[in-house]
Amino acid sequence: MDLNEMRHRINRAERELMPAARVQQWEKMQSDAQAYLKTLTDQRKTEEAKLLQEIEGLKPEVVGVTDEEKKNRPETTIVGSRKLDSRNVTVMNYLTKTTLSRLSAEAGSPEEFLKLIEELATNDNEQFRYILLDSYHDIVKMGQSLFPSNTEKGLAGMGFKNVEHKIRDHYKAAKESLKSPEQIKYEQAVDEVELKKSRLASRSYPVEKNIQEFLGELSGKINWTKNKMPGGQSTNVW
To answer: pTM for this structure?
Structure first.
């Protein structure tokens, strides 16, 4: 659709046609532009839906407790993305309690606190990395309580805030290290689809926006002309 040509036709109709004929021609152009816009929008949405279908089969299954597990192992529970039995939960609760106690007792400075967090994030035993993930907010609150900021001391008085972003980085690294190969593959596929959607939008949206603006201009002319026409004037061409 050539919008410049359409605008030329609008201007020519404004010069050469009577108001009723103008409105009739403009309404036909309006209908054509609306239909074309709908076609473009539908095509974009169809392509987006196809892109989403590409990754649907890669989505990891949601962890849940099966009916058989409920019957044979009623103590099975879901913690985050993990399926744990009562023994696992007991062990994790114990490890979490002792780890948080160690943080509170051994960290004499924000830097020592950070060092202990680094040990959690890089521990070969994934249970300690899960402690960092599961207890992250409690750990942050503990750090803020142990090492509060003192604005009167400037940078030296930042306390926990001086290392908080590094602790966040360790949290992110631990989270990445615990992802399954299936989850990593799915997230990579999602990133690729989002990139394709972005490219599709960069091609489609400017065209759609131009047509919408054109329709707004045309609608304004139609309404203005209709308001100026005598109440009984026909909308026949001549």
So the answer is: 0.62
